[in-house]
Amino acid sequence: MDMKLYNTFKSTVLLALMLLGAASCDYIHEDIEPCDHYLHFSYTYNMKQADAFVPEMTCQETAKQVELFIFDEAGKFLRSQTVSGSDLETNRIKVDLEPGNYQLLAWAGLNETDYTWTKPEAGASMSDWQMAVKQDNGVVSRELLGLFQGTLKLTIPAGGETDTEFPLVKNTKKIRLVLIDANSGTALNADDFTIRATTRNGDLDYQNHPVSDAMVTWLPYYQGVETVNDVNGTAVYQAVCSELNTLRLMEGTETSLTITHKSENAPFLDVNLTDLLLLTKMESHDMEAQEYLDRQDEYVIMAYLDMIGGKAHCLEIIVNDWTIRLDDVNLGR
């Protein structure tokens, strides 16, 4: 090839490459679409240390959505965005925002059956936002759908595509209680046991802090009798199994867990719920008590009973595989 022709060809190729580079979202031109900006939610603030956001949200029966509230840098409400369907499953959410600084508030799992929450209008302050669990005279006896929360300060640059992680925490806690008679062959009736938990947390603000300290009573949404055989299959033991839930548990606040048998006026188990659950935090867990309560979202409490004589005598309690002797079950009582 002639050298002059080669140089002309080379210059043409370089010019084409330069024009191609200019035709990107970084190049400000009315014919070129602006850069896209994405969010992806994560839920790694758990004991598994793995991202469980998409599996937990998509496995919920309903409320498979995230309410995203967008505020300006000063915390004034701009607009909201609902994330659901394929956007939730792929977990790559496009946000159409001009370059600048924003504050974002996300709540996943909000639904009209379980909760009430602020519906902000334009210019409303982020600090005024709050939610609450729907109650019946201070009592909650239904299973709550999983509720997640998070805040994020987001900067949209003048150029370049962005994809920002949005960490969330889980606010709903589930407790399964198994009351098993240590004597084989004893017939148990689930209705003979009254199980209740109380907390002073039925609402949360935008920072995930309780708003009021009104007492909330949490009753089981499930309670029934199940059986288990011994290793030889010759003896059958019955157990009353129940499940209840609470909102976020806070260290240092007043809580209780009581279990009463119909044959007695006083509960045979009456403990501070938060203190009882904190006994399951292993020494190797290098975290504060509140972090443990926030990361751990499910607890199993097993109580071995002696029902001889028709009354319930608690022999031993096991919480998440931790055995608690009876001398330890004062816990502030």
What secondary-structure arrangement, pairings included, does this model have?
Layout: H1 3-22, E1 37-42, H2 53-59, E2 65-72, E3 77-84, H3 85-90, E4 93-94, E5 100-108, E6 115-117, E7 130-133, E8 139-140, E9 148-156, E10 162-167, E11 169-170, E12 173-181, E13 193-199, E14 203-205, E15 216-218, E16 222-229, E17 236-246, E18 256-261, E19 269-271, H4 273-278, H5 289-295, E20 298-306, E21 313-319, E22 322-324
Parallel strand pairs: 1-10, 8-15, 12-20
Antiparallel strand pairs: 1-4, 2-3, 2-5, 5-9, 6-7, 7-14, 9-11, 12-17, 13-15, 13-18, 16-17, 18-19, 20-21, 21-22
Side-by-side strand order of the widest sheet: 16-17-12-20-21-22
Return the CATH class of the largest domain: Mainly Beta
Helicity level, as a percent range?
Answer: 10-25%
Choose one word for the global shape.
elongated
Question: In sequence order, what are the helices and strands, one letter per element?
Answer: HEHEEHEEEEEEEEEEEEEEEEHHEEE
Mean pLDDT across all residues, rounded? 88
Overall structural class, as computed from helix and strand content, comes to: mainly beta
Residue stretches low in confidence (pLDDT < 50, at least 5 long) are 15-23
Task: Kindly identify the CATH topology of the largest domain.
Answer: Immunoglobulin-like
CATH architecture of the largest domain: Sandwich
Strand content: 35-45%
What is the count of β-strands? 22
Give the biggest sheet.
Answer: 6 strands, mixed
Rg, alpha carbons? 28 Å
Cα separation of the termini: 96 Å
The number of domains = 2
**Number of helical elements:** 5
